[in-house]
Amino acid sequence: MTYIIHPIVMGTKVFDKGMMTYQHDYGTPYTIPIYCWYLEGGDKKILVDTGEMHPVISEEREKAIGGKIHTFDEGLARYGLTPEDIDIVLHTHLHNDHCENDARCVNAKIYVHEKELARIHDPHPLDFRYLEDYIEEAEENGQIVPLTGDTEIAPGITMIHTPAHTEGGMSVRVETDKGSVLICGFCTILENLYPPKAVTAMEMEVIPPGTHVNAYEAYETLTRAKTLADHILPLHEPKWAGMESVPE
Q1: Dihedral (C-alpha) 88, 90, 95, 99: value to the nearest 10 degrees?
Q2: Would you say the pTM of this structure is higher than 0.70?
């Protein structure tokens, strides 16, 4: 089974680039897209993450990322879908910008690592991005499927534990007609996985995400992730914002 991966921008963040690139480019303003990924193919309607509930939509932000920003309903409607049509949601992690629309997907099974569930209900003070309000309704409805490790969700789709940004981060490997594709489970851009010469000259193969639990473990996870598929899709890379499907 092969799929087509559609990146749908459902939010943005404007902040210091160092939030993405640990120990590099602090003081540089940067805008990242927040994606919901629609995996087209098979007999199930599958999303990776659900984006923001009320995204800021402005010409300035769209210009910064090179693509359109959508509400959840508008983004799904591009593919003839409604929130009620979604059968499966695969979570890279449970920071708020990745799960704010979970409650809208009333008919979906929601797959997420058990460590993310533990964190969202008992977050460390340093990690304010966990807000349990966004998943409580889905939990009450029995929609959550906790995972403990690598799991095949459907033929051609496997979730892989990649703790770099969070303890329960899960990347999603998807088989496409252009080879295997890894949607990263950690918040990065292309530069994290493929650093410039100034960084590789320091004998660094990758740049850990600016937000992480353990910098050393994050470095090793990113290095390993590059071996897991033919194509790597960093979770917040602006390049995907203007594309209908990835990889091109």
Answers
A1: -20
A2: yes
